[in-house]
Amino acid sequence: MMEFKVSPLTKIISLSGFLALGFLLVILSCALFHNYYPLFDILIFLLAPIPNTIFNAGNKYHTSDFMSDSSNTGQDLAHFLTGMLVTSGIALPVVFYHCQLIGHLSCIMCMIGGLIIYSSIVIFKWFFKKDFNEDDSLFG
């Protein structure tokens, strides 16, 4: 079976373009409508992966199984905080729209841009989860 391999440099370049698209959507949702409240959404989506990163730093090989008897309160708290921040990042533009602080197009652009920002951070962590010491070099 043929295995599809992508160099780490290609991954970084594609993810940076994906991240730039997310920032562009959020900034355009602010600049086109002369209202800069959606910039708070960038802050929330940038803070969202931090709890999982902090609590999973020393626990690289732990698999989360909800049926196991061992409990890891730190990881549960990290998952809760990350879920709360992602939900807040999605709901904040809706609240701004409901309060008539932003328009509906700005709300849609901000939500899509924020989700792109968060997903690019998660995909980056997923791509580079394995060690760089394997047979991949930086340029191929």
Description:
There is one protein chain. It contains 5 helices and no strands. By secondary structure, it is mostly helical. The chain has one domain. Helix 1 packs antiparallel against helix 5. The mean pLDDT is 83.
What's the short version?
The protein is mainly α. The protein is 64% helix and 0% strand. Helix 4 runs antiparallel to helix 5.
Question: How many separate domains?
Answer: 1
What is the element string, with H for helices and E for strands?
HHHHH
Helix fraction bin: 55-70%
- Segments where pLDDT lies below 50 for 5+ residues? none
Structural class: mainly alpha
Q: From the alpha-carbon coordinates, what is the Rg to the nearest angstrom?
A: 18 Å
Number of strands: 0
Instruction: Let me know the average pLDDT.
Output: 83
Sheet with the most strands, sense and barrel status: none
Counted by DSSP, the helix tally is 5
The share of residues in extended strands comes to: under 5%
Shape: flat
Distance between the termini: 20 Å
Helices and strands, with pairings:
Blueprint: H1 8-31, H2 39-47, H3 50-55, H4 73-98, H5 104-127
Helix pairs in contact: 1-5, 2-4, 2-5, 4-5
Core attributes:
single chain, flat, protein transport
